[in-house]
């Protein structure tokens, strides 16, 4: 934590230096000397900002690893996990021993393929994903479902009229406008290939952790990209994707410019949201946009972006936390999306409770590696459009 704290303090100093140069040249063209100094500081800011993000994620991973190791030392590694660890080597005898375990129904493949991971392994994977992806920490996670099941969530296509005051014996007016749609959450399949050293796998106690770490990374980056921009076709529906069953165009706020974002644009986005959603609302955007916003002032001449100097605390914009994703849009041109502000507890994530691994024992043997082709099942989507407001560049 001290490392992150120190880096955030250094970043705050860089921001202060950048703002000092900006204030010194407010309303005037920067001198060549100031422009060069500003560019140099800005490059340091970008590099430090990226380092902070990496360090925060790494510390989350290490905390998860420490918790898992503590459970191991406490003797909580189940017999099924021990059998599974040995089966990950691809050794025919170990695979047979795991397949014969009466607690699990395994794939019918006669080779080392289609190993059904124990629930303890799946739970560790989901916990690792929760630590890895900030949106999973903000979102609502539904109970796990099987790979063959689905979960429907109704959404309002057209809202009802408001209630009316009437006479005591007047019949209630029948509602004519209210219409519902249905967003079906299904276990969308994701295939990912990971490779590990055979030397590592031969130490069976280490193999599950190595597989978990690589799956967390490979599945995590694919999930985050889909949560941002997925089209909902055999994958999650993203927050930057227009959809009547997710965030419709009615929740878009157009900036005044096609290339620049102003303080007033951000205010318009914030107050597009009703008060009940603002209490837990946050911003999601690319770091390139954060850098732009860091230069904006309000009508009183005060900078509106507040860099965090505390480990574990996000930067803030107009009183709400700012979360950065590499997969948020960063092309700031006409009609392109730039940021989302909303209550992300109304983004639902659904994980299936199945995970299958096919052990490719010989395919990568020339490199002293074992391959694992995984099948993860899950879904995600916004379920309440009015809980979000989306900033769009002007036409």
Describe the structure.
This protein is an alpha+beta fold. The chain has a domain at 113-161 and 169-286 and 325-395: Major capsid protein gp5 fold (2-Layer Sandwich). Helices cover 37% and strands 22% of the residues. The protein is built from 11 helices and 14 strands. The chain has helices at residues 2-24, 32-73, 79-87, 92-99, 119-132, 134-138, 198-202, 207-229, 263-270, 275-278, 287-293, and strands at residues 115-116, 140-141, 151-158, 179-185, 188-197, 252-254, 282-285, 305-306, 315-317, 320-324, 337-342, 347-360, 369-382, 388-392. The strands form 3 sheets. Strands 6-14-11-7-10-9-8 form a 7-stranded mixed β-sheet. Strands 1, 2, 5, 12 and 13 form a 5-stranded mixed β-sheet that branches. A two-stranded antiparallel ribbon has the order 3-4. Strand 9 and strand 10 (320-324) form a beta hairpin. Helix 1 packs antiparallel against helix 2 (32-73) and helix 5 crosses helix 8. The chain is flat. The chain starts with a helix and ends with a strand. Mean pLDDT is 83; it is low at 102-113.
């Amino acid at each position: 934590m001290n490392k992150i704290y120190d880096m955030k303090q250094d970043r705050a100093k860089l921001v202060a230096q950048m703002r000092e140069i900006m204030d010194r040249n407010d309303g005037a063209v920067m001198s060549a000397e100031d422009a060069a100094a500003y560019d140099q500081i800005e490059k340091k800011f970008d590099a430090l900002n990226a380092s902070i993000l990496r360090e925060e994620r790494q510390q989350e991973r290490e905390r998860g690893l420490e918790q898992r190791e503590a459970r191991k030392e406490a003797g909580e590694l189940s017999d099924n996990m021990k059998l599974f660890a040995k089966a990950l080597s691809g050794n025919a005898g170990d695979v047979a021993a795991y397949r014969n375990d009466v607690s699990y129904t395994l794939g019918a493949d006669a080779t080392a393929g289609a190993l059904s991971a124990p629930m303890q392994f799946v739970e560790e994977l989901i916990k690792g994903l929760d630590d890895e992806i900030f949106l999973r920490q903000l979102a609502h996670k539904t109970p796990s479902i099987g790979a063959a099941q689905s979960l429907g969530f109704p959404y309002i296509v057209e809202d009802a009229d408001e209630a009316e005051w009437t006479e005591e014996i007047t019949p209630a007016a029948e509602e004519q406008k209210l219409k519902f749609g249905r967003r079906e959450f299904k276990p969308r399949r994701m295939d990912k290939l990971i490779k590990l050293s055979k030397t590592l796998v031969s130490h069976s106690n280490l193999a599950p952790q190595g597989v978990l770490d690589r799956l967390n990374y490979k599945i995590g980056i694919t999930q985050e990209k889909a949560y941002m921009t997925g089209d909902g076709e055999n994958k999650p529906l993203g927050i930057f994707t227009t959809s009547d069953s997710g965030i419709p165009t009615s929740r878009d706020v157009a900036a005044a410019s096609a290339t620049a974002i102003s303080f007033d644009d951000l205010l318009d986005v914030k107050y597009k949201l009703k008060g009940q959603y603002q209490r837990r609302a946050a911003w999601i955007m690319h770091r390139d946009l954060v850098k732009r916003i860091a230069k904006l002032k309000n009508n009183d001449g005060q900078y509106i972006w507040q860099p965090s100097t505390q480990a574990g605390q996000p930067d803030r914009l107009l009183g709400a936390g700012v979360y950065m994703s590499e997969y948020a849009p960063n092309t700031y041109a006409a009609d392109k999306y730039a940021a989302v502000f909303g209550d992300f507890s109304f983004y639902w994530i659904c994980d299936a409770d199945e995970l299958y691994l096919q052990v490719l024992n010989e395919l990568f043997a020339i490199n002293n590696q074992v391959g694992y082709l995984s099948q993860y099942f899950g879904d995600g989507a916004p379920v309440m459009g009015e809980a979000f407001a989306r900033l769009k560049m002007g036409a």
